[in-house]
Every structure is written in C-alpha cells, then in structure tokens.
Amino acid sequence: MKLKSIVCSALSLFCAGFSSASPLEVGADAPKLIAKDQDGKDVDLAAKFARGLTLVYFYPKSDTPGCTKQACNLRDAFENVRAAGIEVIGVSADKPTQQKAFASKYQLPFTLLADSDAKVMQAFGVPARAGRFAARQSFLIKDGKVIWVDLKASPASQSQDAIAAAAKAK
C-alpha cells in the first residue's frame, strides 16, 4: 500500500511539470499576439497569419539533436517549402541570444521566436515540460485559420509533412 502511494505521488509530481492546455484544432483562429524573434524584435503574429500559409513549429530546446534535425530538415528543403507558399516560424522557450546562435550556427533561413514567457506555447495550447520545454508540435495556418495540426511532429520529415498538408489545403 505504501509503495502504491509513493508511486502515485511521484506520478503526480512528474505530470505537474507539464502544462495542461489543449492544442488548437483545425478550424480555430490563429492566435493574435506579439512575440520576440531571435534578434529581439517584435513579431506581430496576427499580421503574419493574416495572409498566406505559415508553418509554426514548436521544439523543446535550440541546438539539441532532435531540434537541430527538425530545423535542418526545414532548412534543407526551404526552397520547396517556399515554393509551396509556406512561411516558417520556429518556437521554443529559449532566449533571443540562444535562438540567434542556433540560427547562425545552422544557417536557418526562417524566423525563430524566443518564447521565454511561454505566451506563444500557451496560445497554441502546446504542452510544456516544466513549463519550459515545448512538446514537438506543428500547426499550419492559412489566412488566419489553423488548417493542419501535427501533435507528434517528426524532426526527419517536418518539411515534407507541411508541404503535403499545404497541397491538400489548396
């Protein structure tokens, strides 16, 4: 009985480290907020989302193996992503200086948001471990509406998955 109580307490503490918001669903309005990019500049997401296609992908931490693989997948297929009409925005809780270093190191040709206050994660309903490390999720937005959600985004095929989703939306 005591072991069961200890296990339940441990699980409660572990789960408490994750935010519990529900992710945005297809058809939802895209969030309207302002966030800082890797250069510390304000990005008006409502203006970005108002026209065309935007892929917003969340990742746990800059310059870690899976996050680097995901970013480089988008970088390497960037011509195809842009040809599909998709603008790319990556989001993690890293600070602008960390995002800038990540973008520079891997020559990432797209915007990275420094969501250190987790406002963007919360607005999209992306779970975050310890309130800091975003779950790997992606959202495709067209003209201000969410048209595709990938709650288990693949670092190895992020660009291909987004391009396929964009093709279905046309």
Q: How many separate helices?
A: 7
CATH class: Alpha Beta
User: Fraction of residues in helices?
Assistant: 25-40%
Distance between the termini: 58 Å
- Secondary structure tally: strands: 9
Overall SS class: alpha/beta
* Mean pLDDT rating: 89
Account of the protein in words:
By secondary structure, the protein is α/β, with parallel strands linked by helices. It has a single domain, classed as Glutaredoxin (3-Layer(aba) Sandwich), CATH 3.40.30.10. The strands form 3 sheets. A 5-stranded mixed sheet has the order 5-4-3-8-9. Strand 1 and strand 2 form a beta hairpin. The termini are far apart. The N terminus is likely disordered.
Short key terms for the protein model shown above:
single chain, 170 residues, alpha/beta, Glutaredoxin, 5-stranded mixed β-sheet, two-stranded antiparallel sheet, 7 helices, 9 strands, 39% helix, 23% strand, globular, disordered N terminus
